[in-house]
Amino acid sequence: MNASVYFTRQQARDPHLLVVGGGPAGSSFALFALDYAQRAGIDLQVTIFEPRDFTRPGPWGCNMGAGLIPVRMLQHLAEIDVTVPPHVIRNHISSYTLHTAAGQIHLPQPDPVGDVIGVYRGNGPRNGPDWGTCISFDHFLLQAAQERGAQVIHERVTHISLSPHTFVATREGRYTGSLVVLATGVNSGGLETEGLDYQPPRRSKMAQVELFLGEELVEERLQGSVHIVLPQNNQLKFGTLVPKGPCINVSLLGGDLPSGSVERFLQLPEVRSVLPEGVQNRACGCRPYISVGAARPLYADRFVAIGDAGITRLYKNGIGTGLRTARRAAFTAINYGTT
Ligand SMILES: Cc1cc2nc3c(=O)[nH]c(=O)nc-3n(C[C@H](O)[C@H](O)[C@H](O)COP(=O)(O)OP(=O)(O)OC[C@H]3O[C@@H](n4cnc5c(N)ncnc54)[C@H](O)[C@@H]3O)c2cc1C
């Protein structure tokens, strides 16, 4: 059945896609779905539910990641004329430096046709500088979706029902639709489901801090490179130092990450060889989860899970994978239907 036939039959009912979560996966799903629908001549309604205000600095406005995105991944957005503006991009990454038991290995950009950009997910660290404008990547995408016709409701969804009726509920209201798109990531819970036995992906704890050094010192110490530290005799799987304009993002993964883990990491000789002596100026910090598994089910009648709430790559390219799963899910919903 082609797209217009499918939606013409549905239209009398409710051609309405309900996107739960307005991170990169949810917003890009809305952007792709609206674009594909327009090309197919379908009058589509998309509603995104997102409680976070990405224009706020610090953890309140942030989806908590290091914010590295291969430009290759953004080409999916370029296909629908969505381009990340320069004021959202903090860095262009030119190389990786591995700190291993065998010493330091400097790897110039491994993908000769690729580049990696660094962004802030929210409006910068809690105690960061005044940026003069909103620099949040997630805000940029959500706003782009809104400008192209998505309705954004700044509320948390508390209940999803697939049968006998398809709807989502917030504390303020109930919204019926033809498809529920779950794009809630792995950092929140408390969502009841009816007519669906959704098992979220397994997740691991991480720790992050933003160190404020100023742009010149960051460039001098990291030299535009992402530093990956693989400590010996340590519970840590790895730690990274990522240049982010005037800050360095420090991200740690491994074990329970008890309090003091960041301090101990910053004292490792390989880390001290990169950072200036006694660096203490913490502009922000958080302890988010990262997805390390797959949800069950990934899709069902009138339901699809995308981004981290569905499946992602292990420790790599979560944002880009969110864009990819969103694009494929939107294509399928518009061209093959939602049932
Ligand atoms: C420390 C760390 C570093 C990382 N570094 C990188 C990196 O450098 N590059 C990279 O590509 N990936 C990185 N990742 C992974 C990346 O952050 C995720 O893969 C990515 O955010 C997934 O996008 P998403 O849209 O699926 O989910 P999220 O970004 O988590 O967005 C989910 C959205 O859903 C909203 N939401 C949640 N529950 C509800 C609800 N009930 N109702 C309505 N809305 C809801 C949330 O407010 C949020 O805005 C990192 C992760 C961690 C933990």
How many strand elements? 21
Helical fraction: 10-25%
| SSE order, one letter for each helix or strand | HEHEEHEEEEHEEEEEEEHEEEHHEEEEH
Structural class by helix and strand composition: alpha/beta
C-alpha-based Rg, rounded? 21 Å
In round numbers, the mean pLDDT is 92
Number of helices: 8
Structure, explained:
The protein starts with a helix and ends with a helix. The chain is of the alpha/beta class. It has helices at residues 3-11, 24-39, 71-78, 137-147, 215-222, 261-266, 269-272, 318-336, and strands spanning 16-20, 45-49, 68-70, 89-93, 95-100, 103-108, 116-119, 151-153, 157-161, 167-170, 174-176, 179-182, 192-194, 203-212, 225-229, 238-244, 247-253, 282-286, 289-291, 299-300, 303-305. It folds into two domains: 3-51 and 154-201 and 292-336, FAD/NAD(P)-binding domain, CATH 3.50.50; 93-118 and 203-290, Polyamine Oxidase, Chain A, domain 2 (Alpha-Beta Complex). Helix 2 (24-39) packs parallel to helix 8. The strands form four sheets. Strands 5, 6, 14, 15, 16, 17, 18 and 19 form an eight-stranded mixed β-sheet that branches. A six-stranded mixed β-sheet has the order 8-2-1-12-21-20, with helices on one face. Helices cover 24% and strands 29% of the residues. It is built from eight helices and 21 strands. Bound molecules: flavin-adenine dinucleotide (FAD). The site of flavin-adenine dinucleotide has 40 residues, from helix 2, strand 3, strand 14 and helix 8.
